Amino acid sequence: MANKFYITTPIYYVNASPHIGHSYTNIAADILARFMRQRLGRENVWFLTGTDEHGQKIQKAADEANLSPQEFVDKVVVQFKYLWEKLNISYDDFIRTTEFRHILTVTRVLEILKNKKPTPDIYEAKYEGWYCIPCETFWPKTQIEEKLCPDCKRPIEEISETNYFFRLSNYQGWLIEYIEANPGFVQPANRRHEVLSFLKLNRLTDLCISRPKERLSWGIPLPFSPQHVTYVWFDALINYISAVGTFDKDGKYISGWWGKDTQVVHLIGKDILRHHAVYWPIMLHALNIEFPKDMTIFAHGWWMMGQDKMSKSRGNAVAPLDMADKFGIDTYRYFLLRDVPFGLDGNFSEESIIKRFNSDLANDLGNLVYRSLTMVEKYFQGKIPQEGVLNEQGKRIKASIQALSTEPDLALNIGFNFSLGLEKIWNLIAMANKYVEETKPWNLVKEAKTTELEAFIRLLVDVIKAVADAIYAFMPDTAKSIKEQFGDQEIKKGSPLFPRIDTKPKN
Ligand code: MSP
């Protein structure tokens, strides 16, 4: 296993406020970062997020807001930082593509690729064809029907201009071999197949990495052609290396977070898979950047509203803070990762949150914690009893506690399957609740079976402490609150963690 862990999220376009879909990736990344810090130590984990601040979309949004692009991005970025803080996203670094460190690295990348010998990886050529302005994408004639963008279905334009191209086509064979030799590189497996069959069935065309300034000025100028700026995707992908390293004078990339001893995880949504699984590895390879020991691009699914993807342009976006304010931050984090297996699409609704809340949080976890606190208070004056001899059921529970504590990296070990990880934790909670119902502690009290009662309650406390450790990465505030209520020897009972949400209409 690598001894350093570097995790990234996509950098978000700042043309609009963040919605649930954006918060999903950052919460998932936060959970993995917290897991890995527990496992490797804080200093060996680096969690990067940030914002994508150049390009047409941003320029347009700035124009509409009557601000300069820089003023506009400076304003919106605050919303992202505020949201991440509220949602307990423990990132180590936040990169903005308008920062000097990033612009410098992009400039170096362009120079290195343009000056590559014997064949430069960037060359100048004339482009004639179709272009979708909102998507900033060139489309070959063969894919165009009725002059509409094959992706967003908006009208596209025919253009003719001189641009710069990155020689993707040279590396197609290499990439197929790389993906085949590294089964963990693109995950989950269906996405890996999707990329491989795309690569095997199509000829890669070179990527246009510039835009003429007269059409778009908001971007990083090409060092070898001041009349052009860099295509926003080429600029954006580089954030993953510009944030954690630099190129030396010979064009060698130097970084403490990118090398043989590092595991790198790029979490993304499925709509940006091709950029990450095709362009990005080719860019790294063309730059002679050594691949990390273990590198994964994991593409998760979408949050949907009925049949539609949640998005600003469809007008169905839900603000994460509205949900966190209404149901609590940890409930929101829990819901997103529990309700849908990571990798699949999920349907968002407040009813599903309430359902999860009332069953998993109020009924299962909240009830176990509260009834245990009440019993320690009532039967033992708030002092946590000693361990004792357990019956068969108790022994099985004890074994499950141990099993859970030897799986600190639950989600990673089972292929980023956060919902399965949570399910395992909740199995233990269910066992403990069942144990209470079957043991009927009030009878032990009546029959004055004090040692049995001690052993029973102590086991419940041990379950709760193990659960608090296991849910820490998912629900940091809840874990902390449970830990505070169950000390080493005594309890400090607070109010119920998850009071049931009443769904019956009031008379
Ligand atoms: N700026 C690019 C990413 C560059 S990364 C080098 C971008 N930005 S974005 O703001 O449009 O989208 C960011 C991420 O949000 C993507 O991973 C996308 O999949 C994700 N989501 C946007 N809407 C989503 C849902 N409705 N559901 C889940 N995730 C979705 O693309």
Number of helices: 18
Uncertain regions spanning at least 5 consecutive residues: none
Q: What radius of gyration results from the CA coordinates?
A: 26 Å
Bound molecules: 5'-O-[(L-methionyl)-sulphamoyl]adenosine
Name of the CATH first level of the largest domain: Alpha Beta
Sheet with the most strands?
A: 6 strands, parallel
> Residue share in helices?
40-55%
Number of strands: 18
Structural class: alpha/beta
What is the CATH architecture annotation of the largest domain?
3-Layer(aba) Sandwich
Percent range for β-strand residues: 15-25%
* Mean model confidence by pLDDT: 94
CATH-derived topology of the largest domain: Rossmann fold
Name the CATH superfamily assignment of the largest domain.
HUPs
Number of domains: 2
What spatial order of strands do you see in the largest sheet? 3-2-1-14-15-7
Short descriptors:
single chain, about 500 residues, alpha/beta, Rossmann fold, Isoleucyl-tRNA Synthetase, Domain 1, 2 domains, 6-stranded parallel beta sheet, 4-stranded antiparallel beta sheet, 18 helices, about 45% helix, elongated, binds 5'-O-[(L-methionyl)-sulphamoyl]adenosine
Summary of the model, kept short:
This protein is α/β, with parallel strands linked by helices. It has helices at residues 20-40, 56-64, 69-86, 100-114, 172-181, 189-201, 232-237, 239-242, 273-286, 320-327, 329-339, 350-380, 392-405, 410-413, 418-439, 441-446, 450-471, 476-485, and strands at residues 4-13, 45-52, 93-96, 122-132, 137-139, 157-166, 186-187, 207-208, 210-212, 221-222, 225-230, 245-247, 253-255, 262-269, 294-300, 303-305, 308-309, 346-347.
